[in-house]
Amino acid sequence: MAQPDYAASRTVDFDEIPVVDVSELDTAVGRARISADIMAAAQTSGFFYISGHGIHQGLIDRAFAASRDFFALPADDKATVQVNTDQRGWMGQGMTHLEGAKTHDAKEVFFWGWDVDADNKDVKAGVPMVAVNQWPDAVAPDLKPQLMAYYLSVVDMGRKIMGALATGLGREATFFDKAYAAPLARGQLVYYPAMTEDDRMAQRFGAAAHSDFGALTILKQDDVGGLQVQNLAGEWIDAPPLPGTFVCNIGDLLERWSNGRLVSTKHRVLNSSGRSRYSVPIFFDPASQTPIDPADFGAVDPNYTVVTAGEHIAGRNGRNFKQYQKD
Ligand SMILES: O=C(O)CCC(=O)C(=O)O
Ligand SMILES: [Fe+2]
């Protein structure tokens, strides 16, 4: 199905979304160069690809296979882990209506996060967004082991990227370590069915235009394509899948934390390929009670006051997903 008029875009210029090779992030010299490259992107388009990340393709392939198997299950099976107001579990189509969008998104999602049990002190204390995962062990026993193996490697890499951003923002490379010891790091499996005629009539997107709520998004997309990013001129450009890379982008929480120095950019997904599309974003957010204090990075813009990470994200969830809304 051709791209409809309401979603016109053009192919990306690679100076707008650069590819940064992060293979030398463990050395001081490498980190200085990579930090400069990442900062240049984070302060302009807010988007960059990373290559040389060292995450094994096998881990990625197994996470995507587990995702396909899960979404292919009958709705009754998926509903055994129906999404709750801790934002854990399966959310069927029609439940995401992003702020400012004409209609709901076409996507289906499985949400999970940092894996804690019911005895965890933050769970017991009701700290925002810290919750027990809902794993569909009875109907998809492979999902938890495949996703957690993948997730923990992305978390490792995420910590290194945050180190590079810390030095770029004038702090020690270890600045974010405490906040990311047991991060929120929200994971999502996303399934975008092939666009239908109904979707086209409703001007529906797989995911309507939005900026991400958290700090840093680390996204793996399959080979289908459909991610579009709004550039500085306000045009929509395609961010196609590039083999061996992840797409990273700055979210609203880090824009706020950095006094707007790092930019959180609008993006959207349109799956006009005629095929199913799958992606796995990890929203790499700090621990819930982390104060997001713009004073950490210099002069304070009065637009940005101090909030905690968990409060900020919980607030955005409440405004964008049906499970939080009373009819
Ligand atoms: O699936 C994608 O390529 C992007 C997903 C996305 O933007 C999101 O879930 O916030
Ligand atoms: Fe997003």
Automatic annotation (TrEMBL):
<keyword id="KW-0266">Ethylene biosynthesis</keyword>
<dbReference type="InterPro" id="IPR027443">
    <property type="entry name" value="IPNS-like_sf"/>
</dbReference>
<dbReference type="GO" id="GO:0102276">
    <property type="term" value="F:2-oxoglutarate oxygenase/decarboxylase (ethylene-forming) activity"/>
</dbReference>
<dbReference type="InterPro" id="IPR026992">
    <property type="entry name" value="DIOX_N"/>
</dbReference>
<comment type="similarity">
    <text>Belongs to the iron/ascorbate-dependent oxidoreductase family.</text>
</comment>
<protein>
    <recommendedName>
        <fullName>2-oxoglutarate-dependent ethylene/succinate-forming enzyme</fullName>
        <ecNumber>1.13.12.19</ecNumber>
        <ecNumber>1.14.20.7</ecNumber>
    </recommendedName>
</protein>
<dbReference type="InterPro" id="IPR044861">
    <property type="entry name" value="IPNS-like_FE2OG_OXY"/>
</dbReference>
<dbReference type="InterPro" id="IPR050231">
    <property type="entry name" value="Iron_ascorbate_oxido_reductase"/>
</dbReference>
<dbReference type="GO" id="GO:0046872">
    <property type="term" value="F:metal ion binding"/>
</dbReference>
<keyword id="KW-0479">Metal-binding</keyword>
<dbReference type="Pfam" id="PF03171">
    <property type="entry name" value="2OG-FeII_Oxy"/>
</dbReference>
<keyword id="KW-0408">Iron</keyword>
<feature type="domain" description="Fe2OG dioxygenase">
    <location>
        <begin position="183"/>
        <end position="286"/>
    </location>
</feature>
<dbReference type="InterPro" id="IPR005123">
    <property type="entry name" value="Oxoglu/Fe-dep_dioxygenase_dom"/>
</dbReference>
<comment type="pathway">
    <text>Alkene biosynthesis; ethylene biosynthesis via 2-oxoglutarate.</text>
</comment>
<keyword id="KW-0560">Oxidoreductase</keyword>
<dbReference type="Pfam" id="PF14226">
    <property type="entry name" value="DIOX_N"/>
</dbReference>
<dbReference type="GO" id="GO:0009693">
    <property type="term" value="P:ethylene biosynthetic process"/>
</dbReference>
